[in-house]
Amino acid sequence: MKDLKLAARQGKENTVVPVEGVRFGEGFVLVAGPCTVETEKQTIETAIAVKKAGADALRGGAFKPRSSPYAFQGLGLKGLQILKKAKAETGLPIVTEVVDARDVFWVSEYADVLQIGARNMQNFSLLKEAGKSRKPVLLKRGMNSTIEEWLNCAEYVLSEGNPHVILCERGIRTFEKYTRNTLDLSAVPAIKELSHLPIVIDPSHATGKASLIPALCLAAVAAGADGLIIEVQVDPCQAMCDKDQTLSPEDFAAVAKKVRDLHRFMTDRP
User: Would the pLDDT of 118 be above 80?
Assistant: First the structure.
């Protein structure tokens, strides 16, 4: 980790990233919403539901890098406009992915947090532009990446003068095939040792199975994570993207309560 000048712990206090009144790295932050923005009705109804259940921010993809070029790639600008309406309706800040360095400037007009996905973790041009934007950046770990490589990518954003980086562990690729990926919960205490940046967990992409998400949410709290980002939709069965890993609002509400209770217990104990 000798090349890390800004992301390394080196005696620094934990960084808190402020986002429209939400503070990543202070307390416990819940980000929830659909994998992909599909319609205005779907997005706004989901936003209202997750807000009621206790979410602090709304996630939703307007641009979706997909393994197949024939899969649904998102609504683009129309999706961002829908997210803006959802924010106006609920007050929830928006976390959305940017996939191209050329899009950072105008996506920043709609997003409160720029998400850089696993497939783009080492897209250095994109990292630099996100750093120049000064918008908070949620940087997902690449599916085949080491912690050192991940932190060096955060360094790219930080070195452009943007101190607002949130790390996101979303599972790594192993030989296991039952789950979509393998959630590396050891990354949470490791990051806490190595870096001052906040870290959240994405159990949706880590497992690919809605039934496994509640247990891993609780495990993330116990490991010391600063928050969760969870895929939720009003009608998961009708989702155009990742429906098998999407929670209903009712299931999310149940998870949110357990997560808050556990976090409260852990922070209140002597």
Answer: yes
CB 171 within 8 A of CB 186: no
Identify the residue whose tokens are 């069965």.
237
Q: Which residues pair with 33 in a beta bridge?
A: 231
Rounded CA separation 61/170 (Å): 16
Query: What's the token pair of residue 129?
Result: 């532009």
Angstrom distance (rounded) from CA 160 to CA 25 = 21
Question: Residue range 176-183: average pLDDT?
Answer: 97
- What is the number of structural domains in the chain? 1
User: Do the domain assignments include residue 87?
Assistant: yes
Q: 243 lies in a domain? A: yes
What residue numbers bound the domain in which 122 lies? 17-268
Count, residues in the chain: 270
Cβ(51)–Cβ(198) below 8 Å: no
Q: Look up residue 39 and give its two tokens.
A: 């319609």
Confidence of residue 68 (pLDDT cuts 50, 70, 90): confident
Residue 250 lies in a domain: yes
- The reply to whether 207 falls in a domain is yes
Each residue's pLDDT tens digit, 185-205: 999 999 999 999 999 999 999
What local confidence, expressed as pLDDT, does residue 241 receive? 83
DSSP bridge partners of 231: 33
> 191: domain CATH number?
3.20.20.70
